[in-house]
Amino acid sequence: MDSKRVLISSLLDIYGALLKDGQRDVLDLYYNGDLSLSEIGEDTGITRQGVRDALKKGEAKLLEFEEKLCFYKKSQKLRSGLEEVAEQARQAGNERLCALAADLTAEL
Q1: 10-19, pLDDT tens digit by residue?
Q2: Residues 53 and 85 grouped into a single domain
Q3: Are residues 87 and 102 in the same domain?
């Protein structure tokens, strides 16, 4: 469950602006705010079932965007490569390259 939570939260950061406002808000409250369906329903004025439906539809849209655009997958690949560069730079004693790799990784 934690891996799904991390994935959806990351996809929400990347593609959230492409969702309807209500879906984005519900996903944000659930995945980033750690609220229950009932709590979200109380905060937004929609039923618990409506919250669940918005979650499922929003999750499906995020996964669809990722399937088509692959921004998350590409960013993970870049992060992995930059971590490898940083490690190689550390071993070679190149602190400037190590710092640059760390700065670029932080931007992802």
Answers
A1: 999 999 999 9
A2: no
A3: yes
The pLDDT assigned to 1 comes to: 59
User: What local confidence, expressed as pLDDT, does residue 23 receive?
Assistant: 95
Q: Check pLDDT > 90 for residue 107.
A: no
Domain co-membership, 51 together with 83: no
Q: Residue 97 corresponds to which amino acid?
A: L
Q: Where in the sequence is the domain holding 39, given as residue range(s)?
A: 2-69
Identify the residue whose tokens are 């004025």.
Answer: 45
Burial class (CB within 10 angstroms; exposed 0-12, middle 13-18, buried 19+) of 50? middle
Show the tokens assigned to 51: 């919250």
Residue 61 shares a structural domain with residue 78: no
